[in-house]
Amino acid sequence: MHKTLSGVTASIPLAEIAGIIPVNECLHQKILNSGMETVFLKPLHHRGQESIGIYYQNSNSLNLIVKKLSSVKWSQTNKCWYLPLSEASYKQIGNALRAHAIIDYKELKEYLEKRKKVAATNHLLRRGRNSQPFLPGHCAGKG
User: Fold this and answer.
1) 56 and 77 in one domain?
2) Share of the chain above pLDDT 90, in %
3) 104 pairs with which residues across the strands?
4) Which of 22, 82, 104, 139 has minimal Cβ neighbours within 10 Å of its Cβ?
């Protein structure tokens, strides 16, 4: 039996619901109606480095939690808290906030997926410079 939010029956634990964007729209609406605030994790390029921006409506309770995160900084320019973009930072944010807020990381996930594709493409391009060019219809070793 999993812990649930305001009578919502869930097939996954509450900690996991708080860490993801629910797919089921009805369940999502019930969670929103539960009074939990939403925290948005977004990619942020700030002071020359990739970061995770932590965005939410001003909340004293969330501010107290976020301020305690290791290495967290406030960006007056972007009006958000931020940490270096890393798996450790992501886990730290999730562990601190999952019981207190719904964490929406959709934009961060999309950014990381695009970044991964670009890195893979760049790797192939670099590797391609050191090997024979591929010519469609041309088989290696045949003249």
Assistant:
1) yes
2) 54
3) 40
4) 139
CB 34 within 8 A of CB 27: no
Residues 94 and 113 in one domain: yes
Residue 134 lies in a domain: no
The answer to whether the beta carbons of residues 33 and 42 sit under 8 Å apart is no
Question: Rg of the chain's alpha carbons, rounded to an integer?
Answer: 21
- What's the whole-model pTM score? 0.65
Q: Is the pLDDT of residue 20 over 70?
A: no
Q: Residues 57, 59, 65, CA angle at the centre, nearest 5°?
A: 115
Domain interval for residue 103: 38-122
Better-scored residue on pLDDT, 59 or 33: 59
pLDDT confidence tier of residue 15, bands split at 50, 70 and 90: very low
**Rounded to an integer, what distance in angstroms lies between the CA atom of residue 111 and that of residue 68?**
26
Asked whether residue 73 is domain-assigned, the answer is yes
| pLDDT classification of 36: cutoffs 50, 70, 90 | confident
